[in-house]
Amino acid sequence: MFLVMYDIENDKLRTKFAKFLTQYGIRIQFSVFKIENSNRILDNIKVNIQHRFEPKFKQSDSVLIFQIPDTACIAKFGYSVDDEGDLIIR
Fold first, then answer.
1. Quick check: helix, strand or coil at residue 27?
2. What percent of the chain has pLDDT above 90?
3. Could you give the 3-state DSSP secondary structure of residue 11?
4. Which whole number is the average pLDDT over 37-65?
5. At 20, is the secondary structure helix, strand, or coil?
6. How far apart are CA 65 and CA 41, in angstroms?
7. Dihedral of CA 83/40/60/3: which sign?
8. Maximum distance among all Cα pairs of the chain, rounded to whole angstroms
9. According to the model, what pLDDT value does residue 45 have?
10. Which CATH code, of 3.40.50.150, 3.40.710.10, 3.90.550.10, 3.30.70.240, is assigned to 2-67?
């Protein structure tokens, strides 16, 4: 699983970026997407970010991608509308 987090100042660019990410995963926070896919898909996402979005970023914009291992312990508090799957805490 991968988490993609972003902080993009421009509303229009941020909306386009979020729509781009919906092709690959689900939104779990306003600026956080969960992507459960292969490394090949992740490479495709990175290339798209570098070529489509990064040239338009301002100095204050950023995108972070974290790989979360299957063995990770994740605690969830509150409710996420888009994340209705079961939560397993080990």
1. strand
2. 71
3. helix
4. 95
5. helix
6. 13
7. positive
8. 41
9. 96
10. 3.30.70.240
